[in-house]
Amino acid sequence: MWKDLLEIVRKDPCPPKQALEVIEYLKRGAKARFYADENFPSAATELLRSKGASVRTAVEANMLGLPDEAHAAYALKHRTILLSCDRDYLNNGRFPLISCPAIFVFQFDSGTGEEMRLAFRCLDPVFSTPQFFDKWCKVDASVHEWTKSYRSLDGATSRERHRIHEGKHQLWIEEYSVDGTRN
């Protein structure tokens, strides 16, 4: 069932220590830095740059023709967020969360600027708090919704589905019966 994210946060706010950490990160004014592999469209790169994003491309990094693992290693070494349209990066066998950079894989449908803008909504938290997106995170983003998989410091992994519906950020919440089965 889709639920409004603001309502979820109001009912269950984060602990004060965590809230202070976020405020401190916001004060630092850090900027997100991206690395676009050769499968990421140049029009998408230019759209991000027009929004003030720092994006280095595979061409600029002299990484054309190299395997996906080399692109992931480059992004991790340079502490950038890897942008791609190559769904191979979502394979946790090849790219486990524990050893990969933050990776955002996009599906732009026909690739219009409007579709790119819609898919880029998943990047909003990255622009405001880039420190939380240096590694251990994968996002599978389309025009309509995105799925985020991430690893916490304690080793736990989580998966969330998000969308923007009627102007509201929503999160998919599984509903379970008393006996523990899904409704």
Automatic annotation (TrEMBL):
Residues 33-92 form the DUF5615 domain. This is DUF5615 domain-containing protein. InterPro entries: DUF5615 (IPR041049). It holds the Pfam family DUF5615.
